[in-house]
Every structure is written in structure tokens, then in C-alpha cells.
Amino acid sequence: MPKGSPEQKAARRDEIMSACLSLYQTKSFRDISMGDIADFTSFSRPSIYNYFETKEEIFLALFQREYECWTADLENMIAANDHMDAAAFADAVAKTVEKRTLLLKLLSMNMYDMEEHSRLERLVDFKAAYGASMDTLEKGLEKFFQASTVEKRKDFIWHFFPFMFGIYPYTFATDKQQAAMEIAGTRVLHRSVYELTRGMITELLKNI
Question: What angle do CA 45, 51, 53 make, to 5 degrees?
């Protein structure tokens, strides 16, 4: 078991996660090793195993933190507004998603590897954070669209969350991907995270 106070343990976990995040900005998920992560911290590679068993668990912790931050943003949006029409709601939620580029990248590119190679208890913690974001968005629908039914709000959620899997690939193409599209003569659609998200929410709200 790692030694130290709860604050020290939390600080070490955060240091490991920050090291992982720094590497992820320049290297692919596949190419990052536990040794690489240790090189970015103030302690040894064996010490990392006191906190995370695999690199996937570190990424999963980052992923969990992203969902927690998004949930907090949604909660603040709901609390700050007494009334929102469809346009205002779509705009506000899209802006919260726009801030979560890391969440979108992990969601679309690495989710299955993270979940497959993490301990069950770590996965349960992540799923709780994921579920909280769904519940919070649904609470926003209930507050601002009081004529909606439970079924329609659930339908919104079960369309919107799968949609989020595809946002990152459609908004962040590599140079190689863009070159291939041009050579293939395939039309490239340039949309931002905000534009895609706002458009999807606007369409879904038509059924609320």
C-alpha cells in the first residue's frame, strides 16, 4: 500500500495522471509505456504500481476526471439559469462539450482498451462518473423542458451519448487523413466540436 497522508496520495496520483496527459499530447496511446510515465514523475516506475496497475488505469482516471469536470459544468449551467429555450440550451451544452477535447479523444480512440485493462473497481468508479453526467444532463432537460416525458428525455440521452463517440474523429483529422481524403476525392466536412454538438442537440430537442 502507498504510504503518506490522503492528501499526499492524491497529489501523487495527480502527478502520475499529469505525466500521462503530457505524454498523450505528443505520443499515441499505444506508444506510451509505464516507463515513459515514470520519467515524467518525481518517483520510480515501481512506485507507480502502488497507485495504478496499468497505464490503462491511469488513462481511465484521466477519463473519469474529464466526466466529473463536464458534470460540474452542466450542474453550474443548470443552477445558473431559471429558464432556457431550445436554442439557449443547445448553445450552453455545446459549450460545455467544446471544453472537453480530452474526453472526446479518449472516448472515440481508447475507451475499450482502458476498460479492458483496468481492474473492476477502477471501472466501477469510472462508470459512476459517466452515469452522473447522463443523470445531470437529463435533469437539465427535466428543468427546462417541463412538457417533456421521461421516455422522451431518456430517448434524448440514448441518442446524444452514442453521438459523442464520433465527435472527435470528425473534428480533429491528422494531416495524413486529410491528404488521403483529398487524393480519394472524398468531400471533407469542416465542423467544430461546438457546431456539431449544437446541431445535434438542436435536432434532438425537436422531439422533446
Answer: 75
